[in-house]
Write a structure and sequence with these properties.
- It comes from Methyloligella halotolerans.
- Belongs to the FMO family.
- InterPro entries: FAD/NAD-bd_sf, Flavin_mOase, Flavin_mOase-like, FMO-like.
- One of its GO terms (molecular function) is N,N-dimethylaniline monooxygenase activity.
- It is an enzyme of class 1 (oxidoreductase).
- The protein has 11 helices and 21 strands.
- Strands 1, 2, 3, 4, 5, 6 and 21 form a 7-stranded mixed sheet that branches. A 5-stranded parallel sheet has the order 8-19-9-10-15, with helices on one face.
- The protein is of the alpha/beta class.
- It folds into 2 domains: about 260 residues, FAD/NAD(P)-binding domain, CATH 3.50.50; about 130 residues, FAD/NAD(P)-binding domain (3-Layer(bba) Sandwich), CATH 3.50.50.
- The protein starts with a strand and ends in a 12-residue tail after the last helix.
- Helix content is about 30%, strand content about 20%.
- The C terminus is likely disordered.
Length: about 450
């Protein structure tokens, strides 16, 4: 059996980005994709899809695209999901990635073998790789709270939601204050008889446009005008309040956290519909008895359908936790990619950041290519990376800035993360070039 250098598990945006960089670096690889297409969550249908009819990007085109392969000029500032899926497909085709992919192949088991990894697939076939890069993402397994077991009315998780026709003529409760929960609550106003939206706390809401520009782009441009973070965020909050995006002004509870401590809720319509009475905001659920929901404020509502927009958990169940306890150790990996226990295993895309995917993946993918080459050559920089990973040193990637919740355990500060990864990648790459030029690279401590 031929053993390839790298196996990439997952053909979504992260897997596509890693594959592009490996190909450019001349490293042989294979993508293992459980479905019939590349594109991951952005597929419009199928077992991997998380898409609903109204879904659009919440990061702007400029901040989401791979800068070395821009989105078409005629794409709007926030492309709908089908356009972004088309873009990912074209990105893959431009690099002939389909030719390097095992489609409709789900990994059943993954075990260390002869310095690499032995993979067993659902159809019984197998493959071996020197290095495995896991790219199947954070949205592996839907989370439904235990209280859902008491429901006798119709009940679905957000992953099952596809269009507003689901809500026609019904009294609908959407549970969850994230971006999907807000999107679905807005959708429900189109066809439902009544819409209730239950959230556990107060949130900071951001419009998708401010001052005629996509908000993320405005935020980045404004940041350069301030000498300290406190003044900048005070300016941002004041601007959003003037634009009508302060939840307290619509009767919602004040957030219990600063605006920079939470993954942004980017939605221009949720407060509009609350202000018009189309959405009735509710606090956390206290009790469910058949089709009647009691909320923490004592109010009760009869509902016909509950949508649980309550998030997801990572699912790497094909890798036995006795081999690597991914559930607990993922947030502790060096650069959120490099585990201490294995030098032939990498994780890409298991993080959140208030940014688009393109440049983030490009940055991680360049690191992966340099890391794999460093491992192949046994370079000094690679050995130092391994020493740091094995020392379990928690590099400051801005984790302390964010709320300590399950939703934010994978959050990183964008700029700190990019600086750190780029620094280490540059060390790996510079030593590689020096070695190729037959010059001895000086040993160096990698500290961002």
């Amino acid at each position: 059996m031929t053993r390839k250098s790298v196996g990439i598990i997952g053909g979504g945006a992260s897997g596509i980005g890693v594959a592009r960089q490996l190909k450019q670096a001349g490293i042989d690889f294979e993508i293992i994709e459980a479905t019939s297409k590349l594109g991951g969550n952005w597929q419009p249908a199928g077992p991997a899809s998380k898409m609903y009819e109204s879904a659009h990007l919440i990061s702007s085109k400029k901040n989401t695209q791979f800068t070395d392969h821009p989105m078409p000029q005629d794409y709007p500032a926030y492309p709908r999901h089908s356009l972004f899926f088309r873009y990912l497909t074209e990105l893959a085709e431009a690099n002939d990635l389909q030719e390097h992919t095992r489609f409709d192949t789900r990994v059943r088991e993954m075990t260390p073998d002869r310095g690499g990894w032995h993979l067993v697939f659902d159809d019984g076939s197998t493959a071996d790789y020197d290095v495995v890069v896991l790219c199947n993402g954070l949205l592996g397994r839907p989370i439904t709270p235990k209280i859902a077991e008491a429901v006798t009315c119709e009940s679905i998780h957000a992953v099952e939601y596809k269009s507003a026709t689901t809500f026609a003529g019904k009294r609908v409760l959407v549970v969850g204050g994230g971006n999907s929960g807000c999107d679905i609550a807005v959708d429900a106003t189109k066809t439902a008889d009544a819409v209730f939206h239950s959230t556990r706390r107060g949130y900071h809401y951001m419009p998708k446009f401010i001052d005629g520009r996509p908000t993320q782009e405005w935020l980045m441009d404004e940041s350069s005008k301030f000498k300290d973070a406190a003044s900048y965020w005070e300016h941002v909050e004041t601007t959003f309040k003037m634009a009508g995006f302060r939840g307290e002004d619509f009767g919602l509870p004040a957030p219990d956290h600063p605006i920079e401590a939470c993954h942004p809720i980017m939605n221009s319509q949720i407060l509009f519909h609350i202000g018009h009475g189309d959405i009735d905001p509710k606090p956390d659920i206290e009790e469910i008895e058949r089709d009647t929901v009691t909320f923490a404020d004592g109010t009760k509502e009869r509902v016909d359908l509950i949508v649980w927009a309550t998030g997801y958990r990572v699912d790497i169940s094909f890798l036995d936790r006795k081999i690597y306890d991914w559930d607990s150790k993922l947030p502790e990996t060096f650069l959120r990619m490099v585990p201490a226990e294995f030098d032939n295993l990498l994780f890409v895309g298991y993080l959140n950041s208030p940014s688009g995917i393109g440049n983030l993946v490009n940055t991680m993918a360049r690191f992966v290519a340099s890391y794999v080459i460093g491992r192949q050559q046994g370079s000094e920089a690679f050995r130092v990376v391994r020493q740091i990973a094995q020392a379990h040193e928690r590099l400051d990637l801005g984790q302390g800035r964010f709320m300590q919740t399950d939703r934010h355990r994978h959050e990183v500060d964008l700029w700190k993360f990019l600086r750190s990864v780029n620094f280490v990648t540059a060390k790996l790459a510079s030593e590689r070039h020096a070695t190729q030029d037959n010059r001895l690279a000086e040993p160096t401590r990698l500290r961002a």
